[in-house]
Write a structure and sequence with these properties.
mainly alpha; about 70 residues
């Protein structure tokens, strides 16, 4: 092995480590954002009244009640 191939291999390893670090940082940020979004969605669903939420999605369901037997 000559000095050029050793230097080239060292540069390739360093570049791979740098790309791995960047990928890990991006994934960590994405996971943090997804966690915040999930918490906000859960809070929004807990705050919404149940029947009103159902009527907004399916307005014909639950609007009329027939009590005759």
């Amino acid at each position: 092995m000559d000095a050029f191939s050793i230097a080239s291999m060292s540069m390739n390893v360093n570049q791979a480590q740098a790309l791995t670090g960047v990928g890990t940082a991006v994934l960590s940020r994405t996971m943090d954002d997804a966690k915040v979004q999930a918490e906000n969605t859960a809070a929004m669903l807990e705050a919404a009244p149940g029947p009103a939420l159902e009527r907004s999605v399916n307005p014909a369901v639950g609007g009329n009640f027939d009590a005759s037997v």
